[in-house]
């Protein structure tokens, strides 16, 4: 067992480093390994500008965004004990997008857009849980269905906001909604949040293992269920909002990645959380690389590519009965 775990983590790390290197070397202008090295060392001014000023920030943003979405997906699936839960399906991404677009339309920029997206994600989460509460409290199925309805409603509101927007900005807003990393210039806030999420959540993995078996059993074992639920609500909203403001709406990463990791490592969240973060970041880096190179110099929306790859993959996992939390 330890050998399998070590091998899996080594393969994930190699895949992440490989995707990182390919992302830096490839784009509308390809760079040889030598040019890439000289660019990183600052010995070639043109290669340095391409690598350090354009591709490196975008690649780091893609890795952090994918890792955060994967972590949020793990948290949501544990909270709802449902393999279909993730920020995109539950409407959290949609709520953040609505708030961010609304802030843009009234002229807000920068930090105010980030704050708006966070508040939108939190508000959507609260609305979902308020509407899903019935006799006997919440049930995972009722929460999931309510989240799906909220996601559909958020999509409709986004369409209205786009119709109200300036025609000259419409294409950029559409690309941002479908996942756009072309404007990424400062990945460090997202990377810092990614590091904080991994460091803070890893010690809570044991509690997540207990909570995933059911709230009643978790209470019997002395886990702080109520506090954990509130923490998961807030953490999922913040992680999702930060990703939406930095990279747009990228779906299916938080849905598929936890399942793939559980197939490789089992259901122990001490192993699942860091592996999901690593795999999610790798998948989004690969998607962003494909978005930049498949039809270069044209660029595709990253979120569209993750959906194209994620839908059939999830259907295969579901058909094989592997989508269990």
Automatic annotation (TrEMBL):
Record's keyword terms, sorted: Cell membrane, Membrane, Transmembrane, Transmembrane helix, Transport
Keyword Chaperone in annotation: no
Membrane topology: Multi-pass membrane protein
GO cellular component, one term: plasma membrane
Position of the signal peptide: none
Entry GO MF terms: transmembrane transporter activity
Annotated compartments: Cell membrane
Transmembrane segments: 60-80, 87-105, 111-131, 143-164, 188-209, 230-256, 271-291, 300-318
Family from the record: Belongs to the binding-protein-dependent transport system permease family. FecCD subfamily.
UniProt name for this protein: Iron complex transport system permease protein
